[in-house]
Amino acid sequence: MEDKVVLLHFWPSSYGMRVRIALAEKGIKYEEKEENLVEKSSLLLEMNPIHKSIPVLIHNGKPICESLNILQYIDEVWNEKSPLLPSDPYERAQARFWADFIDKKVSGVVVRRLWLSKGEEQEAVKKEFIEGLKTVEGELGDKIYFGGDKFGFVDIALAPVTSWFYTIETCANFSVEAECPKLVSWAKRCLEKESVANSLPNPHKIYADIVLEQKQKYGM
């Protein structure tokens, strides 16, 4: 029986983008269901009753939640093509460590705080964000990808954040490239991959449709 794969996500979510990239890398056919995070669907609430958040991967009716957890699931289930994690246990542990670091220091809540805040608060968040990016850039070093010459788990964890660079640069008045030139070069290499280019939205669309709309709606 053919696998039935459904992805519940919201288009500007960097977490959902991760799953899209991984599915594309593996060549997995799936159905996308766009969620309204204000009025969440009954399917989302049923599939993720604990966090009630996206993304959720539904594989043959069974839900898998949380983006990094989903990436590992995808890699284990569809293991015939394009491994996301290295085979060496130590290297796998390192990849998971850096993906977790990215989650805590340079994505999600940190990015949201950066474009929502102002003044001294924004400057503090910006400093934290840049320090996190520089730490990640140090791990990248002179490698093509975080795993060396192979695009993989850590690249997929971080690449979606780059689609928010335009927004945070505009809102917080700084240049990611000036701060982390090697990381920006890496981001450009990632965008040369079809799996990434087709999974990330236009950065200007994120700014116009999400950030400006929110700012205007709440008079920010």
Q: Note poorly predicted spans.
A: none
Distance between the termini: 52 Å
Largest sheet: 4 strands, mixed
> What series of H and E elements makes up the topology?
EHEHEEHHHHHHHHHH
How many helix segments? 12
Write down the overall geometry.
globular
Rg from alpha-carbon coordinates: 17 Å
- Structural class category: alpha+beta
Number of strands: 4
Q: What strand line-up does the widest sheet have? A: 2-1-3-4
| Average pLDDT rating | 94
* Strand portion: 5-15%
Helix content: 55-70%
Describe this structure in words.
The structure is a single chain. Helix content is 57%, strand content 8%. By secondary structure, the chain is an alpha+beta fold. The protein has a 4-stranded mixed β-sheet, with helices on one face. Helix 1 links the parallel strand 1 (5-9) and strand 2 (31-34). The mean pLDDT is 94.
